[in-house]
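dumping the sequnces here before i forget
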Amino acid sequence: MSRIDSLVAAMTLTEKLGQMTMATGDSAVTGAVMRTGLDAGIASGAIGNVLNIAGADKARAAQRLALESRLKIPLLLGLDIIHGHRTIFPIPLGETAAFDPLLWEATAREAAKEGAADGLHMTFAPMLDVARDPRWGRIAEGSGEDPYVGQAMARAKVKGFQGGRLDGADTLAACAKHYCAYGAPTAGRDYATTDVTPRALREIYLPPFEAALNAGVATVMPAFSSIDGIPLSAHRGLLKDYLRGKLGFDGVIVSDYNAIAELIHHGVAADVVEAAALALKAGIDIDMMANAYHDGLPAALQRGLVTMTDIDTAVRRVLRLKEQLGLFDDPYRRGGVESATVLAARRQLAREAATRSIVLLKNDGAALPLAEGRLAVIGPLADAAGDMRGCWSAAGVASDCVSALAGLRFALPHQSILYAPGVDIESDDESGIAAGAALCDEADAILLCLGESAAMSGEACSRAHPGLPGKQAALVDAVLARAGGKKVIAILFSGRPLVVPDLVARVDAVLAAWAPGCEAGNALADLLTGRASPSARTPVSWPRAVGQIPVFFGERPTGRPASSADHYTSKYLDVPNEPLFPFGHGLTYGDFAYTGLQATPDRAAEADGFTVSVTLTNQGPRAAGETVFLFTRDKVASISRPMELKGFSRITLQPGESGTVSFSLAARDLRFPGPDLEPLYEPGEIEILAGPSADRARLLSATVRLV
Ligand code: GLC
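..and the predicted 3d for all of it:
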């Protein structure tokens, strides 16, 4: 008899439900519901899994309690290690801007090592929710608006977190979340309902999760939200039938925080008994923090709403995950002290990731890199070390972070750098604006450090006006009125694209820094001084106005495409249709010309493919890295097709140097969900487009044919 068989045979119902329960520790607060009795629950076997414990000693102590319980089943310990554990990397939306899967994997690998060294076994990451609504604060946690990017991120993060084998001393079980379409909430409000079509699910929201499954992700977390009136925590169609049945996922499904109990609020369960039964029948194995399985399943058994087989199936999955993690073989395998060398190398990676995440959105008159001279650094985010962590900063601490001001002062020790916050991030107090603006008189260039605090994005942080909070706009007005023609550079710190068209129009240069992590200030100093060249590209469109939301490049064509010459076409009276900055936009200190797009052969059958190449020349004064995007558009198909991203690749060129970027494009990758939503290969013409962003005006185009 296997270990799992003998354990299941020996377990009481309470112990079985314990393996299906995850309770929170006190190292982080990630939900509204709190409970007491954690240690007693672990010791009695009533709690078999714990989240939010950080620190090897705490982890070891909790594990010891579990190993002293009757059946000595080891504890599973999880934490939201989303973009670093103690060493904080850029938030995922920022890191995506590097468009480098190897970097994405490397930071996850390092985060896993650091989390495992703290005794952890599991992270609730990667977050794979495609998002096109900057009002939604959790756009910060994902990889932006495009499913192709989401798939690449999923593969990289699962591989990075889980390493070569799940039972390694430095690996974490990953968790693909939040399944699914959580990023399309009504009105951009977190937790709100999503009403997406089955086609949108298959074209946009499911592909990153399928990529995570194909990469071997160990666990999946359903979203808080509902689709078409069915909460994901009770969605048998999408969990049991599609995820488990059609995609064959047999790993652990862990609910989101208290989500099972919230089925009552959703109005699909009358009480915790029905809620527990719905979740179990849908395929959820672990109840995070609702205690619904503990409180509700015994009565659900008696009412015949669930069977003991349903329960045993869930218990087996949890025990199997613990076996895969090596917890039975050596429950203390994870947990140890890392060397100073390892930590220093990790910080260097954080600096590289930050440097490659910061997008140069505008650079009129080559305002950047900065010329020698006195600097005025003004704004509430200039010396905000803690806010550089962004949302979901796990065990990261403010004192480990380098602020923009600190980074500049360290990089330019002999240069005059004057500083004033001017205003707080969110308050209405304008009393500091005059002093802030007055610094312009003593400066040759002015840096405005503006944006959101770390607490203004992430979970439960939707904003109806996703612009500059508080009185920052008033500070901008005062500084620009005092700048007297000196260069003014705005650095925007945020968890989302900010809607700031006036600011962008009025300053000379703009950097989207997102939340760059613990090495923020050093990375910014590298970019501002020209020691590094910006190469990041925005993974999400920047709206010109809130009224444009959702604005994204992959919109399906309309029968009345916008035309300024024709009133009866799809456009606004008051703003252009185009975003302020399109997907993929980002400047460098180089100047790249694109020529000679080739797609060969000119036709291919389903089993074959195309080679697409384009030549770039750096006509600029400095070396720079350029990311080239490959899009396709199926001009005529049985289903109307949007422009789709099919590849991205990076090239670094010296001034005057030319180089060729090539893509392999398999004909099979041009299939799409047909009328029955199954992958359909359809002969016909395909437009091939390549260029620096989704801006059609900057794309080279060629045509091939599928036969
Ligand atoms: C939170 C989040 C989820 C997180 C979980 C555990 O509510 O929705 O992303 O992993 O709870 O902290």
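The radius of gyration is 26 Å.
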